[in-house]
Amino acid sequence: MALAKWKRLTVVAAAVALIASGCSGNGGSQTGPAASAEGTSSTAPAGETVKLKYWGAIPPENGPQKVVDAWNAQNPNIQVEYYRYVNDEPGNTKLDTALISKNDAPDIFVSYGETHLNRRLNAGMAEPLGELIAQAKFDVDTVIGKDNIIEVKGQIMYLPAIRLLTAVLFNENALKEAGLTLPKDWTLEEFADTAAKLTTPQRKGVFMGVTSDNLARFSLLGSKPVDSYYKEDGTSNFDSASLRRGLELQKQLTDGKSMVPWPEVIASKLLPQNELLSNKAAMVMGGTHNIRDLKNTADFPRDFKVLFAPNPQAVPGGNINYAGFNDFMSINKNSKYKKEAMQFIAWYLTKGNEDMIPGGRLPSNKNADIDKVVELFVGEYGAQIDKPSLAEVLKKEYSFPKQLRTEAYSDLSKVLLDETERYVMGVQTLDQTMQQLKSKADKAIAEVK
After folding, report:
1. Which residue did the predictor score with more confidence, 31 or 393?
2. How many CA atoms lie within 13 A of 28 on its CB side?
3. How many other C-beta atoms lie within 10 A of the C-beta of residue 101?
């Protein structure tokens, strides 16, 4: 999911842009470059109020409605209406259909993850933003960083609203009971070893949402962050020694009963945050996207604090974070009000999205005040969420995986997941798995070419 090279969390916006230093969702001051609708001309007839439709997947009550209300109060001539779609297969199909419709089509839409983003860009659904960015006087490099955006044929087609950070979330009590200290810099091997030490008859050492968070994938991303799925000759990288080692570690977790069996994870639709907060797992692969879950004390009352550690590395001493920039904001190519849509996006990315932070949306603004982000993240839940370890993870320097090549990318992702599942479940041997991975991935790439 990661799109860019992260020079510094402070620098790369904790994607969480909003905070652009002290800016507030209802019009506070900010230290980054300002971008607002003031002083710009509208493409609508004189005196007519422009109405923009803004589609995203975050529930309105978790921030988007406050953001839209703040904008609408400041910009009576450009009013924004937020529409929530569900970020699942039917929901994404609904958005895709709306983008090509002539009635009630979105002006602004948010894609979550590279797969959905690339599909919409390849289908020509998004407007190139270069000229619109210039008109809005939005300084991409100062706010987000040009290196953190992948251009398409020399064009900026989206702007990321947040930066996601992966991290390992710990039950503090479980860590103490096992006599372990919070890891600072560790490897995937040490992660698997820690899971074994944390495992008790009542609690699994680790839980991972295996369809996306598995050690095979992390090992591949961590060992080759740029175009991890591909070799220089254009074939797949699915015969790498690092991928093989990641597969072994994933099976080690299952065979050693350090985690819930893979089939049960899928069949029961178990979620990492639920397993952690219900005291069924001592640690989980999670990240900043779980902040909102950690505040859910109504469904998950608990007597332990959640601690944060940086994610384990495939290469010792590495600084790869397995997430990256997300919440990709684009403008519908068919929108009648592209200029006004860009004005809203520019405002949102510099100072308008502070109300999104408490729900775990870490802004993409390089000027974000991380200490303030931590305060907004935690709020009144200091007894449940550990501020010092959270701040340390957020302030750490990272690089993110970056996928410049996209040939058969979604097909390769499916091949990797399917073959990993077969191996972990004992359907095929490791050698058979490596052979299947390589042959199927190479075939998918060749068919696209």
Report:
1. 393
2. 17
3. 11
